[in-house]
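User: Just a sanity check before I run the rest of the batch. Below are the structure tokens for the first item. I only need the designed sequence back.
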């Protein structure tokens, strides 16, 4: 919208010269990242949006990257197999925002770690800081917010905003984009047009529609915080029951499993616990960890395809089904073998088998 050809480095895909390729991981090694930037320049890209992972920060893959603006969205329990504690996880993210060369930053103060970061930067940062969020404490916040199944509209920083992205968490994401745009001195009308043209990221609160009388959402949520956010957003899509299918990855932070179980039973009306990349672990052992927080009032089906079909069979008019954990992923890893598996395709097959067809 600003008249610049943008590149992208993210978890789902990398985009070079308008052509997307599947991302093998979020943040490449430092030399590979610079090589990717060179490709973008040669392809005519004039800017790039980079998803800066904690792995990339901790392993110093981003040390030679000079960002024009940084955006802090949120932090929830994840990657503790690498960081050990949430404090170390926070510090890995924080190091991008501090130092004499740190750029201007937009910080989400709806998030507890964002509030802490904003306070710390207010005392030490040399570059401008803008806070954003849904609360009155934020500098960039929505006024007259209207949310529906087809998107949201509101006014922020005096700009009339319409976005096709659904959910309260996407309002936060849009506010972050607006705050970043303000720090980059992008014109208001360009910001509004850019937000209006936004499309969803594959596997992020992605709807699967075959004409069924209920909503079906596939999302990458695989942490307690992200699962909580997605289930709350999904609740706003219908006035019926909320059905949740989810699992937890093997060979990763075990501590988050019971917390995710507790979140699921708190937010959803019916929960089906299944497998999600068990890797070298026994699927039922992972499920048992989840049940420590979820209790025994949930369904258990380690066969993810069967669990998705079961969720579809349970849904009625006005209900919402959320299939969480894999999102854009196209494989299921079990015992060192990756089999093709796409939640969206499996959900679509289940809907068609149930007699629905768009």
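Assistant: Here's the designed sequence for the first item:
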């Amino acid at each position: 919208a600003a008249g610049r050809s943008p590149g992208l480095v993210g978890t789902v895909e990398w985009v070079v010269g308008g052509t997307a390729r599947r991302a093998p991981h979020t943040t490449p090694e430092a030399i590979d990242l610079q090589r990717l930037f060179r490709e973008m320049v040669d392809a005519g890209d004039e800017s790039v949006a980079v998803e800066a992972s904690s792995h990339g920060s901790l392993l110093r893959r981003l040390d030679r990257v000079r960002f024009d603006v940084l955006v802090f969205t949120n932090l929830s329990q994840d990657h503790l197999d690498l960081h050990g504690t949430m404090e170390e996880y926070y510090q890995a993210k924080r190091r991008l925002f501090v130092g004499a060369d740190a750029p201007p930053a937009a910080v989400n103060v709806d998030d507890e770690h964002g509030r802490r970061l904003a306070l710390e930067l207010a005392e030490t940062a040399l570059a401008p800081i803008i806070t954003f969020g849904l609360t009155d404490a934020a500098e960039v916040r929505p006024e007259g917010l209207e949310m529906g199944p087809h998107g949201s509209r509101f006014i922020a920083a005096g700009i009339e905003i319409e976005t096709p992205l659904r959910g309260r968490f996407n309002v936060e994401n849009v506010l972050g984009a607006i705050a970043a745009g303000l720090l980059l001195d992008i014109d208001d009308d360009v910001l509004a047009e850019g937000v209006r043209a936004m499309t969803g990221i594959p596997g992020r609160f992605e709807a699967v529609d075959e004409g069924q009388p209920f909503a079906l959402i596939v999302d990458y949520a695989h942490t307690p915080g992200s699962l909580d956010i997605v289930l709350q957003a999904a609740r706003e899509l219908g006035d019926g029951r909320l059905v949740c299918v989810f699992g937890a990855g093997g060979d990763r932070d075990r501590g988050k499993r019971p917390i995710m179980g507790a979140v699921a039973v708190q937010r959803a009306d019916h929960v089906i616990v299944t497998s999600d990349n068990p890797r070298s672990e026994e699927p039922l052992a992972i499920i048992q960890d989840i049940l420590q927080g979820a209790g025994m009032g949930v369904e258990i089906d380690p066969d993810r395809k069967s669990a998705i079909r079961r969720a579809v069979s349970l849904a009625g008019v006005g209900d919402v089904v959320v299939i969480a954990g894999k999102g854009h992923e196209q494989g299921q890893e079990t015992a060192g073998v990756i089999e093709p598996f796409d939640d969206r395709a499996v959900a679509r097959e289940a809907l068609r088998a149930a007699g629905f067809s768009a």
